Amino acid sequence: MRRWIASLTLCFTAATGTSVSAQELNLYSARHYQTDEALYSEFTRTTGIRINRVDSDDASILARLRSEGSSSPADVVLLVDAARLWRAEVDGLFQPVRSNLLDARIPAHLRGKDAGQGAQWFGLSTRARVIVYNKKTVQAADVDTYEKLAEPRNKGKLCTRSGSHPYNLSLFGAVLEHLGPAATEAWLKGLVTNMARAPKGGDTDQIKAVASGECQIALSNTYYLARLMRSDKADDRSLMENIAVSFPNQMSWGTHVNIAGAAVAKFAPHQVAAVKFLEYLAGDAAQAYFADGNNEWPIVNIKTSNAALASFGIFKIDPAPVSIVGMNQVKIQQMLDRVGYK
Ligand code: FE
Known about the structure:
This protein is α/β, with parallel strands linked by helices. The protein contains 15 helices and 10 strands. It is about 45% helix and about 15% strand.
């Protein structure tokens, strides 16, 4: 908390224009991991650019950018999930970035749409949204596609967090892309029918509910699983004993993958430094921090020593652009309201 307040003070100083210097950068970050400190200090060491951080959650950062408007001191914004990045782009909170390095290193389907002046946000790491199930009570063949989650064979077995959470909005947006509106709405209705309990909690709570037997099947991002697998607490590791993981749709359109990403703020006072920071984040050294610090896959092809990630193996990824998935979230929310998915 104290560090947060200190960052606020620095940023407000920057906002008054009294201390704006080319050698600093104001970062609004929704990522908070142990390795972040090393990630940022390495940038300062190599470029001489000091980083002032505002750490908060995604929703608060977006609310803050909106209320600060053109006087916002924010240079770089780090958010998780394409749904949120897309929303911020639509709300006019970012600016397009033209960078040969970013274009070369970050696959086109993992950045915002380029309308001619460059994309407005860039994926920096990926996570898959997978199916977690009780391996004693559920057959692998009953959970090898997202579609099967809605089938009668899985009635009363499913746990999820809120349907409106960005992680689910993005997954459902991908399903809409592949199945079309009618089949997607019927699928969402099937999920509601198959629930073991009303949606609540976060992804880790769903994993725990499967481990405890409260439900048999759940959805989770991969890094929550990897975190439990790598935990130094025996209780965390034992949660995984009865659990298996399905990377769905390997025979069809592939497993849904989302991103954590970065953007340059619309009114960035240090635009040049901001682009430099994004390029740094796409570099090999920074990418290794993403993989080790939060168990995410790097966006570039580098070797990681993360055993939990390695244990997931290689899998087929849904090639649908994450920007489209973001775009679909309004339609999905309307469907969720109609089928009563809280
Ligand atoms: Fe998360």
